[in-house]
Amino acid sequence: MREDNQGDSWVQFGDGKTGIRLPSGIANVRAKFRTGIGAYGALKPDTTVQPGGKLNKLDKIQLPGLVTGGVQPEDEKNAQEAAPGKVQSLDRLVSLQDFESETLALAGVSKVAARWGLVNNVTAVVITVLMETGRDDEIEAVRSILAQYNRCRGPQRFPIILHPGRRQYIYLDAVYGLDPTFRQERVEKAIKEALGVAGEEGSGSDGSNGLLGIRSRHFGEREYATRIAGAIQNVEGVTWARVTALGV
Prior knowledge:
- The protein has helices at 76-89, 96-104, 139-153, 184-195, 225-233, and strands at residues 2-3, 9-10, 109-119, 122-131, 160-164, 171-178, 238-247.
- The chain is α+β, with helices and mostly antiparallel strands.
- The mean pLDDT is 81.
């Protein structure tokens, strides 16, 4: 899909070599296109809903529920993680990795893990999904989409059980030696990025790819003080590092 200089959107399908061809027949392609300033979430207090254009005999509109499915433009890192799996699955849901790839491509999903499990003594595909901050209420929409995927493109032999993932906050105390030829504020910013400290986006620090960042972690993964000290030590401008406290 691309957008031209006039703002028109174009969807281009494959030719059988560089992409899949469209099936024959009519009414076999459906597209949903939405515009506006609210990608997701409920209506904010003291705000009103404004239509994007004028419709005859429509005086007023309301937003009684949540806005779901919207997302900011996909970043490069998420595309690199999600795209290969979707290509390898050939648009089918066969393996656990196929379920993970399809779920990760959904709007608002930041982390996913699929496994086999027993639920009430029934074999099921158990998928743990971590939503982006502020989008936990969209978990039901994700559950509905996955059920549809399993019905239309999967084996539909086992139920899909969706569990919401949770972030685990930790406390960390560390000391380090500063090379006197480096500026302290720049070194500390680099340390936070290397560790994956969350909540520093406002200061221009992106820790999503750090040691504890969302893209580097797996559900239930252990962490050790020695690895944290090593991540700090590898930052340019740090002469030594030591972790003095670590816990949940």
